[in-house]
Amino acid sequence: MTQRRLPRAGELARILRPRPPTLDATRRRLARAHTIADLRAVARRRVPRAVFDYTDGAAEMEESLRRARQAYRRVEFHPNVLRGVSGADPGTDILGRRSELPFALAPTGLTRMMHHEGERAVVRVAQRAGVPYALSTMGTTSIEDVAAAGPEARRWFQLYVWRDRAAGRDLMDRARRAGYDTLILTVDTPVAGARLRDARNGLTIPPALTLRTFLDGAAHPAWWFDLFTTEPLRYASLSAGGGSVADLIDHVFDPDLGLADLAWIRESWPGRLVVKGVQNVGDARDVVKHGADALVLSSHGGRQLDRAPVPLELLPAVAEAVRGEAEVWVDTGIMSGADIVAALARGADACLVGRAYLYGLMAGGERGVARAVDILRAEIVRTMQLLGVRTVAELTPEHATLR
């Protein structure tokens, strides 16, 4: 029969260790976030529904995004043991320069809508983390202001081809003068995808104060306060009136974009050129023939053509087709550092991460973006060590298969 006794004071002291209270609410929120999914849950509570849905949503039935995430869940890792994995290094070369992590922070539109610090916060985190950051044509901070906020960061500029070619050339010239070394041409947006969450929420830029948004705003007063007490929310590189994102895309972007335009951009841009939005082997070969230094297998985060090919599934065939001619990157569906390791093992040279850091931005501004990067870094290193590799170059297709 078990004999019971009262615990001694010393025994209780060893296990009763209350944490000192944290007065900083942002710090408390971020300390409880251990995964990107945790940051997503915090973000959902912190911003109005239309803002969260703009980041979180995709096109039509959202099958492209769902399938992309399911593909990563289908990955089966195959570890090696007894390999001595202390000091695992997650860094790699991207377009000939060292990146401390095997991913870049992707271009995202309307970043200041998620948090008033916007692109400035993101480029500062990229600078500290030693990873590239790509500013979007649809960004809400100017090319020059982002450069000033992250003078030592490796900065890239993402371009859509406009009907007005002179305006596009001007953006490229400004980016070059401001020290951006790489141009990312997005080619999967001849017209706007049907982003139904935005349509149902009535999302416009600047945000319109309808009865619905007013009521939603009552639950998020801090977001509205920041919106009204900081510089106006607007596209920094576009002269556009009010309206939806889809209205802007269909009015400004050129649906007749072709390979001749890619050749023109290659001639106009002196730095590295990346083509983003490739979705089959034939197009991959074409863009490389026309001067791309890298291509991104991407379904635009599922935000353009619904039921598009899954980038992770396309990856081995495309990597084989352009091996030695151009780098192959991948995006869409990445929610963890393990996802990034899986993509690298299956043939990617690097990844672009977008939603993951935007969840952090909504959850806690610059500190939230830093938390997202820290989470991904820890997951990448841990996954590499558990697979039995110490460098990104050691990852092979044998390490990750799709079930």
What does this protein structure show overall?
- It is globular and about 85 Å long.
- The longest helix is centred in the C-terminal third of the chain and has 33 residues.
- The protein starts with 8 loop residues before the first helix and ends with a strand.
- The mean pLDDT is 94.
- It has one domain: TIM Barrel, CATH 3.20.20.70.
- With 403 residues, it is an alpha/beta fold.
- Strand 5, helix 8 and strand 6 form a beta-alpha-beta unit.
- The strands form three sheets. An eight-stranded parallel beta sheet has the order 4-11-10-9-8-7-6-5.
What structural keywords apply?
403 residues; eight-stranded parallel beta sheet; alpha/beta; TIM Barrel; two-stranded antiparallel sheet; 12 strands; 18 helices; globular
